[in-house]
Amino acid sequence: MSQHLGAWLRVQRRTRGWDVPEMARQLARAAGGERDTLPALDTLIAYIRRWERDGSGISERYMLLYCAALRLSPGQFGARGAAGQPAAPAGATVAQPAGYAAPGSALTWEPPGSDPGVALAAVGAHSGEQLAGTLPDVLQAWDELMQRRAFFLGAGAAGVLALAPYRLAEPAPGDLDEAVAASAELITCCRRLDGVLGPGAVYGLVTEHQRRLAGWLRDARTADAWRQVAAVTADAGILLAWLSFDLDHFDDAAAQYRQCSELARGLDDVDLRAFLAGRMSRTLSECGRHADALVFADAAGRIAGTAASYALRSWLAVTRGYVHACLGPDHERSCRADLEAAAWLLSRAEEPRPPYLAFFGEPYLDKWSGHALLALAEHKVTAAVAEGLAAIDQALASWSQADVRESGEVLAAAASARLAGGEIGEATRLAGRAFQVAGATGSPRIMRYVTGLRRRMEPWRDSREVRALDEQLLVGG
């Protein structure tokens, strides 16, 4: 599908007599009043060349811009017609299955009957805050859910099925123990593949498997069977929410976390409930909603209390510390207290991690401590610059080679720290490495970090180092 999509994009452009720079200008025009949030024209040209080369890494935002520029409906985007021919004219019907996703790209499923205005709200957005779309509506639903006191056996299955592409549910397997164990192994393998290859490699598989698990959950006949299936269904939902988060689909991520939280209540799992509230806080902070993020971070802390594991409480503390840092210098003391607590708790964490928390350890703690300290530095807390840089460098030095995609975030953070210190040469080198990771894994989130760095480098645009970075962005390698 990826190679087909690249060829399709090229045919669409050439049919209209446009060269690549003109295609970039057409996308900018399609963004309308939001065109200022797009990357520079040369960066956009680099994107187009990469998309036409292999069809990978194109997010829903740019798919919608292409549809506007080419005067096609979203259902016609990438549609197969006669060999080498463009899709049917706008207005013709091109059937797509519910839950359609383009493997190898960042196109994600939209629920049948969803409001296209919701998707269009993201067009032209660049920062996480602008990409949030209808997140306040999801938050209201989440808030109502957090206040529930009753949970009915099997209620979670209906919610999970509502988020999955509609098909007739498969019957529960004869050997449920073996099926659940195999499902857990599959989710673990998908997490590893996501870390190496990015969300496009596993998104469709995880979506389909979560639908299957939700069907088993609905058909559970005993409380023990329900709990057994609910635990692995929640784990699959957490992974799917993370993939949506990495694709900058924050509403989908929030909805998935909400449904998983409902399952966690039925399981009476304190760690899982606290983790999901913490993930919602992280999602909100990525959207720039730091005050709301603090509400969820505090709620997660109250849920965890002292009953949750040391590792989970450490992760919650560093997550809350970052939120405090983003709220300004008045929160510096709270931020530093959270970072100290996170380090202390992690030093005592000897219990096995659940699958959804397996990523958390010293490198991750260093990374987010660095993020928090650098956020403080942005609020003129000058002592935090050197501290943040040291923490990020420590994370970079100890980062696992198997976790390719997230190394892009660490590289981008290191570049940001160097840029804050005026080290333009090192900042551009690290940004270039982050760009390579973003391209290799098809991560819109990492690409967003890179283009944000490039905009901050604009005062040095005529320097040799920044021109070299621009050339790298232009050729896409």
| Number of extended strands | 0
So what's the overall shape?
Answer: globular
Number of helical regions = 21
- Average predicted confidence as pLDDT: 79
Order of helices and strands: HHHHHHHHHHHHHHHHHHHHH
The CA-CA distance between the termini, in Å, is 22 Å
Q: What share of the residues does DSSP label as strand, in percent?
A: under 5%
Question: Ranges with pLDDT <50 over ≥5 residues?
Answer: 81-139, 145-169
Q: Rg to the nearest angstrom?
A: 22 Å
Query: Largest beta sheet, briefly?
Result: none
Key terms:
globular; mainly alpha; 434 Repressor (Amino-terminal Domain); 477 residues
Tell me what you see in this structure.
- This protein is globular.
- It has 21 helices and no strands.
- With 477 residues, the protein is mainly alpha-helical.
- Among the domains are: 1-80 and 114-126, 434 Repressor (Amino-terminal Domain); 134-268; 399-477.
- It has helices at 2-15, 20-30, 41-54, 60-70, 116-120, 135-146, 155-163, 176-197, 203-218, 223-246, 250-267, 270-286, 290-304, 310-326, 332-347, 362-378, 383-398, 404-420, 424-441, 444-456, 464-475.
- Helix 12 (270-286) runs antiparallel to helix 13 (290-304) and helix 13 runs antiparallel to helix 14 (310-326).
- The model is unreliable at 81-139 and 145-169 (pLDDT under 50).
- 66% of the residues lie in helices and 0% in strands.
